[in-house]
Each structure stands twice: as structure tokens, then as C-alpha cells.
Amino acid sequence: xxxxxxxxxxxxxxxxxxxxxxxxxxxxxxxxxxxxxxxxxxxxxxxxxxxxxxxxxxxxxxxxxxxxxxxxxxxxxxxxxxxxxxxxxxxxxxxxxxxxxxxxxxxxxxxxxxxxxxxxxxxxxxxxxxxxxxxxxxxxxxxxxxxxxxxxxxxxxxxxxxxxxxxxxxxxxxxxxxxxxxxxxxxxxxxxxxxxxxxxxxxxxxxxxxxxxxxxxxxxxxxxxxxxxxxxxxxxxxxxxxxxxxxxxxxxxxxxxxxxxxxxxxxxxxxxxxxxxxxxxxxxxxxxxxxxxxxxxxxxxxxxxxxxxxxxxxxxxxxxxxxxxxxxxxxxxxxxxxxxxxxxxxxxxxxxxxxxxxxxxxxxxxxxxxxxxxxxxxxxxxxxxxxxxxxxxxxxxxxxxxxxxxxxxxxxxxxxxxxxxxxxxxxxxxxxxxxxxxxxxxxxxxxxxxxxxxxxxxxxxxxxxxxxxxxxxxxxxxxxxxxxxxxxxxxxxxxxxxxxxxxxxxxxxxxxxxxxxxxxxxxxxxxxxxxxxxxxxxxxxxxxxxxxxxxxxxxxxxxxxxx
Length: 563
Description:
Blueprint: H1 3-7, H2 13-37, H3 41-44, E1 49-55, E2 60-63, H4 68-71, H5 74-84, E3 95-98, E4 110-119, E5 122-132, E6 162-166, E7 169-170, H6 172-179, H7 185-213, H8 215-238, E8 243-251, E9 261-270, E10 273-277, H9 293-307, H10 316-319, E11 322-325, H11 347-361, E12 373-382, E13 387-396, H12 422-428, E14 431-438, E15 454-460, E16 464-468, E17 491-494, E18 501-503, E19 508-512, E20 516-520, H13 535-544, H14 549-554
Parallel strand pairs: 10-11
Antiparallel strand pairs: 1-2, 1-5, 3-4, 3-6, 4-5, 6-7, 8-9, 9-10, 12-13, 12-16, 14-15, 15-20, 16-19, 17-18, 17-20
């Protein structure tokens, strides 16, 4: 169908709605397939993956409801793959693998597989997914070191776009190169094949839609969905006050003995567009926490949706209204080979810098600062089996208080990953988890308090291991809003019941058998003045152990009788 003919026709709303629902369903089914066939705890239990489908032009049509940091990078990945592999170089059954930091989501563990979708004799789209893999080699188990790396070449195996599948089969010579350079080849190999499974399911579902509706109708529906999505997001942005606004926050550091890292954002809202400029942030650092622009931009997409319409489709039409800028050579737009393996630590602070602006413009929709999180990696040899192990953990604490409600506990702030069950860690790794509990009086006070920080103590039960810490908020408290108090700072303690040592938020440490690491996440910020908090809620917090009687009296000015 010609472009002229397409513009002179319209698609009925019922068919349009069904096709849109079909696109969303494909993304979700791909995710279900990936989760159920994965080998690693991070993917199977922690949902550290994402899925999406794209049209023939490389435009995102729909995504599964997974991790924003992946999904915002996918459009760039697909476009890059199309440049590396024009359509005339591809055949049915091909699939492309890439993990390059500057192309993908900013660090090597995130491996994307892009599978062209063929209808009849030509490509009509791309099924795409990404997994965070347990290891991609490099200096430390898990490939996410911050300390001790000064360039990307130290972080593991870099994979520029390469055909990982031909004629529907994995290229075993390439697989041997990959699996020969990772510490846990069974998990990496299993997850790569799970990604292929998910993309195959997505491809088949998209082909069926083309068979059912025909190519002309599908193409019209795609254009209509993207145009309507763009129109709607611009309408919502135009409801925000126009202007240029600034906010800044700080990371603790890039490792022990280093300076804080400035996170500065300048946001311009004008005529239905939003531009976030991070150019005044710190220079890139000789440590693995730089954020390539493909990752930084993800959080702009996420926060705009969070402040406008969380249920609005996430597709190419929506992201047309948003632009991210960053000074080349800065921590949020580094020059390759800047190391970035530990960039996961940065995602919440990127979000919160922009949140500091939008909270002033749209206070009724705002949320105070999160607890941050910690992404623990511990690896070595399991004495029981003689095989390498890598414990990958995502530990989440509290949301910030909001205009109408308290922050919740033990939730993922800017992604959909859950806390991985204790039993899974203990079954698959030589560790014993002593406690997982909320920290009393850690939440920022307010009319609506923040969520409490969370404590998790892990004991090593093999001879030795390397601990890699990806945390923050040890030095700069999570901020409150509209008179709400800041959350209590985080801390990480080695052997809390013995010869106690306080660790930094981004330390690398050798552990021995019996060492216990106590992770104590920050509390989230509160919203509104504490003196306006409902006394009944204070009493309930005391009964639940979230607030002590002393804090109830001193911070909230409640009488001695708290029962």
C-alpha cells in the first residue's frame, strides 16, 4: 500500500483496539516465556529482563511490563542492529546478539537478542528481549565492579552486533567464545536460549496477527497507534507549566576515598516537549559507574509517564516528545571506553533528580525520595560442589511518602523487579541469611511518612568469596517533600556481632567463611510536616514496630500514651 492510499483510509476503532491489545499481549507473553525457561535467579526470580516488539522501521510498538532501564534502551539497540545488518543481509531464522555498553543499556551483563519477524518473504518487525546475565567475565564475579576498573575492557566480554542464530539454530562457535569467558556458563547459556524462546513466541504471535488482519490493516493500525500515543503524551505535557527548571543531588562517591558525584539536571518544558539536560553533572569517573546516554535517557521516559499517565502505551510515539542531553565526557554521557559495569547503582538518582523538579510543578503527583537499593553480588567457588557460584541479589526498601499516602516498604522504586526469596539464595548459593527486617525509625517523618529502610544479613558458608557492593545514600539522605523529613542514611556493616567494620556503599571486599555482611538500606523521605500526621497512624506505626515510642514523642510530638 502506498503512503497516499494509507492516509486516505481509516481503521475502525474496534479493530484498532484489538490490534493494540494484541501488541501488548505479545510483549507480556514473551516475558512469561522468558521467565519460565530461564536458568538464572536474576531472571527467573528477580524479573531482571524485558521484552518488546518493533515494526519494520525499528519503531517500538509495545513492551512487556518490566524494567524501564532496559526498555528505554531497546529502540537504540534495534536501530543499531538494523544499521549493522540491513534487511538484505538477513534470512529467516537469524537473530542478532549485542551487549555493547554504548549501544545497549549501559553495561555488559545486559544482553539483547533481536529477532527479525518474517511475513511471507519480507521482514515486518522485530521481536526483542534483554536479560541481565549472571556474569560476562571481567574483574569480578557478576561483571559489575565499580572499584578497581578504569576502562570498559576490564569489565568483561564486549559483544558488538553479531548473528547468534542462523536458520533458527544457535551458532555454536560464537556460543563457545561467550561461554568460555564467563564464570557460570550453564546459567548464561540457558538464559540466552530462553531469550531465543521468548523471541520465537513473539515472532509467531506477530505473524499470526499479520495473517489474520492483512498487511495493509496492520500497517495502518501501527501508524494510528503511534500517532495517537504521541498526540496524547504531548497533550499531557502541555498541562505542565512551561519553563526551564533545575535540580541537583549527589552520589556518595565512586568508591572509598573518592569525591561525591554531582547529579544535575536542567529540564525544559515547552510546547509539548520535555528535554532533560545532564550536562552540568560531574565528569566521567575512572570507575564502573558511568552511565551511557542510552541508559540515562530511559529514566526520562519513565518519569514522564509516571507523572502523566502510567497506563499510556510505551512506544515510539510516546518517546518522540522527550529528549535527553548530556555533555560528552560527563558521567551521564561518557566517552568509550569509560567503565560502566556498576551503572545500576545510578538509576534511582537519575530519576530522583528529575523528580525534584516535577515534584515542584505537580506536587499532588509527587513522591519523596526513595530508599535507594542495593544490588549485591557475591561470587567464588562453592565448596560443596567445587563449582563457581554467583549470588545476585536485588534488595529494595521503601517508597517516599506521597501527597495522600505513606510510602510502602520492600518495593522496587524504579523497576518491576521483586525481592528474590531467601530460600532461593540459600538453595543455590553457599550462604545463610540471618534476617530480613524493616529498620525502626529509618523512615523520613511527615504527614505521610516514607517507607522504612530494610536490613538483610548474609553469612558466607564457603572458604572465600568476592563481595561487590552497589549501594548509595550512605552520605546524602533521601530527601523529603513539602516539609517532610529526610530518611535515615544507609550503612553496610561487616560482622555486626563480632569485630565490626563499616563498609562503603561501593566497596569490593574479599570475604572468608563465617563473615556476615549486614546491609541496612536508607529510609525513604517523608511528605508534609510531621506535626500534621494523624495520631492514629502514629500509634499504628508504633504497634507495627515502624516507629519507636521515643520517636513518636520527640519527632511527632505524640503524648506518652501511644496505645
